[in-house]
From TrEMBL, chain A:
The keyword Transport applies. Residues 9-255 form the ABC transporter domain. This is ATP-binding cassette domain-containing protein. GO terms for molecular function: ATP binding. It is found in: Cell inner membrane. It comes from Sabulicella glaciei.
Amino acid sequence: MSAEDRPILELRDVVKRYSVSRGLFASKRTLMAVGGVSLSVRRRQVLGLVGESGCGKSTLAKMVLGLETPSEGEVLIDGRPIASLGRLERARLVQPVFQDPYSSLNPRKTVASIIGLPLSVHGEGSSAERRGRVEEMLRLVGLAPRHAAAYPSQLSGGQRQRVAIARALILRPQLLICDEPTSALDVSVQAQILNLLMDLQSRLGLTCLFISHNLAVVQMLATRVAVMYLGRVVEEGPTAEVMLHAQHPYSLGLLASVLTPDPRLGLPETGLGSVFPDPLSPPPGCAFHPRCPLAFDRCRVESPLLLAHRDGARAACHAAERHAMVAA
Amino acid sequence: MLGSIPGSGGADMSDITLPQPAPPAIRRKRGRILGNPGLVVAALVLGLITLMAVFAPLVAPHDPYVQILDDRLIPPAFVDAEMSDPRYLLGTDNLGRDYLSRLIYGARISLLIGLLTVLVSGVIGTTLGVAAGYFGGRVDTVVSFLITTRLSLPVVMVALAVVAVAGGSLQVVVLVLGLLLWDRFAVVMRSATMQLRNLEYVAAARSVGCSTPRILLGEILPNLIPALVVVASYEMAQAILLEAALSFLGLGVQPPLPSWGLMVAEAKEVMLFDPWVILLPGLAICVLVLAINMLGDGIRDATAPEGRT
């Protein structure tokens, strides 16, 4: 396999369990945050990871960043297991942009020292060289050199997120993890940050894992999309394929839930109901069946596998499988 | 502005101008400090007492140890104008020592004990609290046990017992109080660290490759300083009061050192006939402790989260 083809990020059956205490006398219970996820991201690709709150998106991101260790399975970055990498080595390969720019920047540090922190941790360059690189990064993310001396409290949300992006990119990582980088921002600022990310992605050839619960955002950026539900990937494929020919009823529901600016259309009807299952006791069979409009007997007993259907897309749904068989 | 030349010699401080919003932010902070009269008064009083203590040999009109037995218990002018002596502004004690000089030198003892005690207890409590809050798990269990154990000890009783065995001296008092008063530091730092630990900038620092000590010193500790200052001021006041109590009981600083607590103790023999003798050091303790507490409160208000998250 050539270096171009080798996936930058590969997840192999990654499982993360947490044991949850229910008080002093009750026994501990296991929460399956991520229940066996296999994904891969190739060089210069953007994988959009979507799903509702609590579906395990952020836990997945933390495992890729090495902030959490998987209970089972393996995370490989550039072909090497992340568990075998040292702290500094790992930091050179993968960097995060977090959701909330109000808590992701240390309020007691200047912008220059926040962006320059990776360089000083890795002992790169003299202080003059570092200052030069920080200025270069500031310009790259669309901030003025004068912002270098500012404190985060003097910046707007969008400016803060630009600082966070600059910090993530200054080490030129192989992989950028964006964990809902726009959901804490105003709508008008969201577009600016997305444009910046798209611009940087194409200019620097970034490989990106982009986590969001907003399908419209993912559609703009991602080359492939993976939909997660209750710790599992239920559908995965090229963006256009998933957007236009979604097979899984949950993906369809997500697509239907996108809000339109036309007030006459009212709130979208997803047909999914609003009941979120208890992740401490997930339903048997397909985890989605209590909310699924297409559920039948098999869904209540047997967990569906992630099977390829067409054009490199995969879905985990018995109903979609049956449908495909009927169509064939 | 020539800020567009990267890495050149021009990239010094001259092209990094202050960001526009900075002046209002500074003005807001200044306004918050000056707009709080309690804080200003406390700072002035404390500053005055500190200056007096530091420059005691220059400020004090007499030697605080010299006894002039002919001049015993001369009242200050505001107590008895006829009996007073212009040489002794606040009168003399029952051994004929100048009371003002003894009060000024006494401030030295009080401040010294307060500062040193806070230093000892602050280092112990902050280390334990930050470790418990950051690492959690077993470390937290052990530290929490230490805190509860410490809280079950009555401070005054333990201090009395130890001083009674080890003998009263400045070093012993500082050590005993320092080893006893760290509980509040530990409790506050533990919960504050727990909150900070889950913030994204700590996760970002870890992702960037920071070592644990670097995260603790560079990311966590700077954000604990406001809370630290408040607890330290409270504990300093507490230590000064306890020193006064121990000295009053004769188990703290030993005579002839002019500790305020000791002066109260010495004055109690004559307090029925000359109440001002006991009143003056009592008032001094009261003013100092009040000023320190008000300063702590004021600093807490001035650094309260606003525009900073």
